[in-house]
Amino acid sequence: MQPFDEENTLPNRPIARFFLQKVRKAPRTHPTMANPIHRGQLADFEVNIKIRLAALWTAVTLCYLYGDYFELYVPHKTAGLLSGENLLDSPMKLWLAALLLAIPAVMVCLSVLLKPTLNRWLNIGLGVFFTAIMLLIAATSLTPWRTFYVFLAVVESAITATIVWQAWHWPRQNI
């Protein structure tokens, strides 16, 4: 006995034959797409606004970390860190810097967990705040050894401005 019928390549076993006939007759559509799925066509899904905001806060947090890490390669930076002659030269300044940089990291989580109204206004307010800070840093870092910092500040500003735009255009619920 051959495992497949030569005529239509269905198995000769009745149960397998029944299920394969049903599968072959089923429409090949995806619930999010009106058109049938064709080989090679990729499905796309709308990403929830909370996930988009969390992703943007993640991206901007990583840019902040990269900027601070790359700054260690600027000549005399590590010498200033070792001698204590730097911008963050007191416990209060270090605490304020930690607070400032904790906000974007915490916003990754809060963007997913908070209710829409508070979430929206928090993203708009903090997005505007961080956009302004990064534009100020970009404007005051125009030296040859800090061009990377200006580049990252512009990228970070674009990301936080996108956060503001996304939150401002938060989808409304259909009633």
Please, could you describe this protein's structure?
The protein is mainly alpha-helical and 175 residues long. 64% of the residues lie in helices and 0% in strands. It contains 6 helices and no strands. It has helices spanning 14-25, 49-71, 77-83, 91-113, 116-140, 147-168. It starts with 13 loop residues before the first helix and ends in a 7-residue tail after the last helix. The model has no long low-confidence stretch (mean pLDDT 86).
| SS-based class | mainly alpha
Give the terminus-to-terminus CA distance.
Answer: 61 Å
Low-confidence stretches: none
Strand fraction equals: under 5%
Please write the string of helix (H) and strand (E) elements: HHHHHH
- Largest β sheet strand count, sense and barrel closure: none
Overall 3D form: elongated
Number of separate helices: 6
| Portion in helices | 55-70%
> How confident is the prediction overall: mean pLDDT?
86
Computed over alpha carbons, the radius of gyration is 27 Å
Count of beta strands: 0
SSE layout and pairing:
Layout: H1 14-25, H2 49-71, H3 77-83, H4 91-113, H5 116-140, H6 147-168
Helix pairs in contact: 2-4, 2-6, 4-5, 5-6
